[in-house]
């Protein structure tokens, strides 16, 4: 599959959704029909406006998350990441991409953040117009079905380690030759995840002045980087306000009761695959040093099913304490987030995401703090 490959790419870019029943198999005639559909998907249009109805049931969750996005795209020869300047809005925020920079606008507190990185969820929202190719729809384990006004393509993929039953479905309209929906599904550690994107109300005759809109917003909104500096407290006071429950013994505890020369807070949750990949590294750090030297603490703000959490911790052999709390004065929004503190709870370093090369960096930092 062109836009996926290794399982990490599957987790980042593939959308996992509900399974559907296929009743028949077509070959060349259906492939020609899909060629016609792809030719009508307006990838060459200079501007596009449409809605995306997004649904997701994460791993280890029973509830389905639902959100609606309004997406505007305009082709850009300057943009080397997405190929488009764009504006994506939901009920809470607006995200602009202009000249290779993402601007995340928060209307509730009139602030914004700037980013220069690929956001894979945004990739999925612009997926049908930028990325879909014929090779994505055909190949091994592809089943095609037709109704009077639609074509369905089901693709199945081989299991990848712990990832099982990987499926993806596309549906196309034969009325207007447009992509209607992408739904996909995957199983992992006895739980499943699905994601569904439904595309609607495609309009080719709309032009939005992104540059002017953005300039006006940035002139009236506050850069969140400076907002956070203005509102920051002393580090010890910041962490002394955090109270929670230790998963292992269900006892109430204050975070600052953990005393070591180095304290590593791992902000994580069960449905976060990069968080799971980070666990072995944190186990090795926790095992190498005594509790007086280094204490790793898994801080969970999201999961509240204690039985599922304990099963998850046992299955993934997590050896450090798990601290459940509702209090997040640091406003952690990216997972995993590793916050490295000294014994006075001063923040020494903050690291985001999973990177297999990060372990050496953390060990070097620990040694430096311990020797001081």
UniProtKB/TrEMBL annotation:
InterPro entries (UniProt xref): AhpC/TSA, Thioredoxin-like_sf, Thioredoxin_ResA/DsbE_sf
Where the record annotates domain Alkyl hydroperoxide reductase subunit C/ Thiol specific antioxidant, the positions are 249-325
One Pfam family named in its UniProt record: AhpC-TSA
List, alphabetically, the SUPFAM superfamilies matched.
Thioredoxin-like
Its lineage reads: Bacteria, Pseudomonadati, Bacteroidota, Flavobacteriia, Flavobacteriales
Spell out the protein name for this chain.
Answer: Alkyl hydroperoxide reductase subunit C/ Thiol specific antioxidant domain-containing protein
Superkingdom of source:
Bacteria
């Amino acid at each position: 599959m062109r836009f996926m490959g290794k399982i990490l790419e599957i987790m980042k870019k593939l959308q996992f959704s509900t399974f559907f029943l296929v009743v028949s198999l077509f070959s060349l005639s259906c492939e020609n029909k899909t060629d016609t559909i792809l030719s009508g998907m307006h990838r060459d249009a200079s501007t596009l406006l449409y809605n995306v109805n997004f649904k997701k049931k994460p791993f280890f969750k029973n509830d389905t998350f639902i959100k609606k996005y309004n997406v505007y795209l305009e082709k850009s020869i300057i943009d080397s990441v997405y190929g488009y300047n764009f504006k994506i809005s939901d009920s809470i925020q607006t995200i602009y991409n202009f000249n290779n920079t993402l601007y995340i606008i928060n209307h509730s507190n009139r602030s914004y953040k700037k980013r220069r990185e690929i956001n894979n969820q945004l990739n999925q929202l612009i997926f049908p117009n930028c990325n879909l190719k014929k090779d994505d729809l055909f190949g091994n384990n592809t089943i095609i079905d037709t109704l009077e006004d639609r074509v369905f393509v089901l693709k199945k993929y081989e299991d990848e380690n712990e990832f099982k039953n990987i499926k993806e479905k596309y549906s196309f309209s034969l009325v207007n030759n447009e992509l209607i929906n992408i739904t996909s599904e995957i199983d992992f550690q006895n739980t499943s995840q699905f994601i569904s994107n439904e595309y609607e109300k495609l309009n080719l005759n709309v032009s939005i002045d992104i540059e002017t809109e953005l300039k006006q917003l940035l002139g009236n909104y506050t850069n969140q980087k400076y907002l956070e500096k203005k509102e920051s407290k002393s580090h010890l006071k910041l962490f002394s306000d955090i109270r929670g429950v230790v998963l292992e013994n269900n006892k109430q505890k204050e975070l600052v009761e953990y005393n070591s020369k180095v304290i590593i807070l791992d902000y994580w949750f069960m449905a976060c695959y990069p968080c799971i990949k980070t666990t072995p590294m944190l186990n090795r750090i926790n095992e190498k040093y005594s509790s007086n030297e280094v204490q790793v603490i898994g801080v969970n703000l999201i999961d509240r099913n204690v039985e599922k959490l304990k099963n998850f911790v046992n299955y993934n052999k997590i050896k450090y304490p798990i601290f459940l709390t509702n209090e997040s004065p640091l406003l952690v929004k990216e997972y995993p987030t590793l916050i490295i503190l000294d014994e006075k709870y001063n923040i020494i370093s903050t690291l985001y995401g999973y990177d297999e090369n990060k372990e050496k960096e953390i060990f070097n930092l620990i040694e430096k703090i311990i020797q001081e």
